[in-house]
Amino acid sequence: MAYGSLEAVKGISFYVAQNEMVTILGTNGAGKTTTLRTLTGLIRPSAGEIWFDDINLASVPPHSLPELGIVLVPEGRQLFPEHSVLENLELGAYHLRKKKDRAQLAQDLQFVLDLFPRVRERLAQSAGLLSGGEQQMVAIARAFVARPRLLLLDEPSLGLAPNIVEAIFEAFSRFRREGITILLVEQMALLSLENCDRAYVLEAGRVALSGARDEIISSPVVVDAYLGKHQLAES
Fold this sequence. Notes:
- By secondary structure, this protein is an alpha/beta fold.
- 40% of the residues lie in helices and 17% in strands.
- Strands 6-7-8-3-9-10 form a 6-stranded mixed beta sheet, with helices on both faces. It has a two-stranded antiparallel sheet with strand order 1-2. Strands 4-5 form a two-stranded antiparallel sheet.
- α3 packs parallel to α6 and α6 (132-145) packs parallel to α7.
């Protein structure tokens, strides 16, 4: 995957199994966001294939991915700031417009509002007036009501207070119990590793290391580069 002549991701290969939570780690510029943007069709790969079940995503336009069950929560959230919180949530289910889906939407809204009581309190407010943490909760809730099978998350904890981060990771655990598969790019390496099944470490656009959670957490390379020995000891 490239931006013009700049090759950001160089022939990586990985998989995510159903109902797994997989984390992608890496320093800034390692290719993490580029990988997610390529999976969602926002960047077209210069070579290779991307398969979701038996579907080659290379020819699928980005706006059709939610109908397949692939939903992205991008870095920066990208809410509609002039619209109310409720309208933003309902827009997440735009592809579920049939009458038979209205009951499901109501049920899903109830689920996410129970998860995020602060969102419930602000349903009538414009999304642009919310705090960063509240906006992130809305973005994640909006993704859930889209009924994803595969949820992609790009740096969901970036710039958030610890209590908000705790709430959204608890939401991810609940999502998994609902059968949702998660692929997570996250700056908080230890937190993401503690909650995932497997991880991939990108360096300069390539997979430098991969393995099960415990294997990655105990890797000296990961400890030195991403965790820090003192942080790991405190956990």
